[in-house]
Here is the input.
Amino acid sequence: MKLLFLLFFLSLQLIARSQSQIEMADDFRGEGKIYVVIMVVLLLLGGIFFTLFRFDKRLSQLEKQMGEEK
Here is the structure.
């Protein structure tokens, strides 16, 4: 198991070294579109976290109500 784990990480290092330049990222950076991509990702993550926070708050209220009824 340890050998398989070691081989996996060694192969990842070899792949990372061989792909030193990513064309798509360079194009986005060169045209200024990388900032749009970053903003979209941040907005999506913010929406997900906000939804999870609201869901947790409502769930806590329901748990509190269930505890009071017992």
Remarks:
- The longest helix spans residues 34-69.
